[in-house]
Amino acid sequence: MSDTMSDTVPEDGNVAATAPDQGKILLAVSILTNVVALWTCIMRVFVNRADKRETHWADRFVGLAMALGSVSNMFILIETVNWDKPQAALEADFFAQPWLMLGATAAKAAICLSLVPLLQPDIWRRVLEIQILVVCVVNCAFIPAILFQCQPMSSFWTPGMDDQCWALHTRHTLEYVQGIVDLFSQLYMAFITLIVVHQYQATARRGLKIGFCFLSVANLTIAVLVMVKMYYISLTTNADRYLPQAIGTILTVLVQNFLIMAANILPITMFFLKDGRPLIQMLTEPLPSTRRSRQNCPESGYFVHFDTASMMSKGDGMSTFSRVSSLRRRSSGTPFYIQTPASQPGAGRKQHVEIDSQQSHIELDGFEHVELDTGSGTTRTVICKVMPGETLLLSPQGRDR
């Protein structure tokens, strides 16, 4: 499968000088996108710790992708520093390519692992799992092709050495195959993301749907970058062999770092939604919609607002009194006194209900008076006339959703 490459060195034995501006652009793009990708990874860790979520394989693959991306960024830094020395720059670029490909593969696996648990039909899930395997196998197999395309290896960046390298059309064919696999995987991930939005359209929160749409757009953007990179590969010739290719490296860097950013879109979306629940629960169990009317209770540190949809079951056969009693048994902390409505047996009786200060909210349905213990031995009426079928939400300040 190997042929001796021809037309590898100019007749005068000198290597053409490379444009210095290209090196500066490569350095700027690499540092900027790497910093943004690192920031999204830090946000992901912050969200997981704040919501006390377990670390999953998707989190591990994102961390691996960021570590590999940092290694490739160091090689690119060496390349740009030596940009006026094409031989040294090309050597650094040669060793940066495998790290860039490994980082992109790990980030792509993280995105797929995030989507797999959300897919309902098994067929979509199986295809996505197969895609993860195929992408990992193809990209990992392509790395030796990069490293051992010339024997000895140093002849790749050293002009004038007797070498045995693969012919240009052979290298292009391998790069096209790897690019087509990457392109298909990106398009399929964009499609699968929209499938998830469609499956949970009735229950998912609007902000979460927007996050999935951003993820789909990010995958399509990366697919465009892959296509541009494949087109650029078709333009390279043997005369370009001993020159570092800034445009090709810039496209590879963008693909890797955009994939890392895309893998962190959903955790960052969950952070801004301030929900605190697992992703699958946010998709399947919507929060009740609230009306605009809300009253601040400074003495308690709680917001009080109405909600037209109760998260408690209305058809469970429990009376209003027994619902309050069950709340009292399940929780402890800040006391609230609830007065039963006149239509209920034992009208006028006040029930002592306690909720934990960390509890996100408490719902009360159909009470005539709600009185708050201010802590000084007196009570204060917060809301009157909570009509049956209407829910009162008490939620801590700063946790209002």
Automatic annotation (TrEMBL):
Membrane topology: Multi-pass membrane protein
Transmembrane spans: 25-46, 58-78, 98-118, 130-148, 176-198, 210-234, 246-273
Subcellular location: Membrane
GO cellular component: membrane
InterPro entries from the UniProt entry: Rhodopsin_dom_fungi, SAT4-like
UniProtKB keywords: Membrane, Transmembrane, Transmembrane helix
Stretches assigned to the Rhodopsin domain: 44-267
Pfam families per UniProt: Fung_rhodopsin
Recorded family membership: Belongs to the SAT4 family.
PANTHER family noted in UniProt: INTEGRAL MEMBRANE PROTEIN-RELATED (PTHR33048:SF47), PTH11-LIKE INTEGRAL MEMBRANE PROTEIN (AFU_ORTHOLOGUE AFUA_5G11245) (PTHR33048)
Name of protein: Rhodopsin domain-containing protein
Organism (species): Apiospora kogelbergensis
Organism taxonomic ancestry: Eukaryota, Fungi, Dikarya, Ascomycota, Pezizomycotina
